Amino acid sequence: MSITEHVNAWLREHYDDVISWRRHIHSHPELSGHEHATTEFLAGILRAHGLTPHLFPGTGLMVDIGPAGGDRLAFRADIDALPIVEATGLEFSSIHHGVSHSCGHDVHTTIALALACALAGADLPQGVRIIFQPAEEVIEGGATDVIAWGALEGVRTLYAVHVEPKLRVGTVGVRTGAITSATDIVEIEVTGPGGHTSRPHLSADVIYGLGTLVTQLPALLSRRVDPRTGTVLVFGQIESGFAANAIPQSGRVRGTVRTSDIATWRVIEGLLDELVTATLAPTGCGHVFRYTRGVPPVLNDDVATALLADAGRRVDPQAIIEAPQSSGGEDFSWYLEHVPGCMARLGCWSGEGDRGDLHQGDLLVDERAIAVGVRLFASVAEEYCSTGLANR
């Protein structure tokens, strides 16, 4: 029996269990770095299926299946939730007010869990590793810790999926190269002596300086980088002042800078620092520039992406479509700095009602997407073990 045949048979027999796992995880969300109960739940199910999970320090875990020697194929799922109030009205909604799986990580985790349990009884010619990563939703992301803990040792290539409510369930979006963007945070504190609004010439106008940054900095940046890189600076926070007739002594703006180009990402901090200094110089204001590096763009390897696309077509000839490039960030990118791999978009829209969006409290996921994800990964494993990256 082939890998896919084995997994399909297992899935038919255990489908109700798989759905119950997803609903338990969904109703018991935990924030980044606090996924203790989730880790225990996953470890318990893996042990019940004869597997030996390796727990990471704190939270998260991984499990190896199949032969110990040789290069491993790996799959990654993220297990953390968001600080968002759930508004789905589902019977299995979050029991923790203000915390919810509004990014679909419960689905990713369930797919990986079901795959691990199904493969436990399969005849695998090569080893497979399933990584359950904590803390994806925070900067710089839990991936760097997981890598430091040895999760990529012996791994040849790595795969993941992310639910996509813009795509109909049953479809899988693939894209070679950048599929997400780098996401960094920029903060500029602007300072001056303060003063009265009737005498701005005797002070340095912090409010004017902040306004100049907000209006001019994104435009200047667009003239210093290649527009094909999808580089964009957007401010989301500005704060200063305490009275209508007083020039404040300080204020700040905070925003995100995103790019799909790895070369641009590596130099953009210095470029922005230069532009901030030049923009504020005529105002007489002082400033402090703070830049928080987030994650690089997810750069899908061409061979790994082609293998996943072929594997998806084996499951359903109509499943594979081209995914648009996203401006969102994903710390799966850190793994791809070390090994080739691919992240795909997993359609989860039922075809009825609004398509919804990620990071929204009313995100609804068609649970049929779970079986699609499990079958996709099983097909990837079969393709890898026969003619794919194992022989690269």
TrEMBL record:
Domain Peptidase M20 dimerisation: 186-280
Coiled coil: none
NCBIfam families, sorted: amidohydrolases
Annotated source species: Corynebacterium uterequi
Alphabetically ordered keywords of this record: Hydrolase, Ligase, Manganese, Metal-binding
Record protein name field: Amidohydrolase
Requisite cofactors: Mn(2+)
A GO molecular-function descriptor: metal ion binding
Keyword Hydrolase in record: yes
EC category name: ligase
Matches recorded under Pfam families: M20_dimer, Peptidase_M20
